[in-house]
Amino acid sequence: MARSLYSYSLGWILFLLFMLSFPMHLRESASAQAVEAMLHGQQAPTIGEHLFSAKLWFESFQNWQSEFLSTAVLVVLSIFLRFRGSPESKSVSDPHSKTGA
Question: What predicted TM-score, i.e. pTM, was given to this entire model?
Answer without folding.
Answer: 0.56
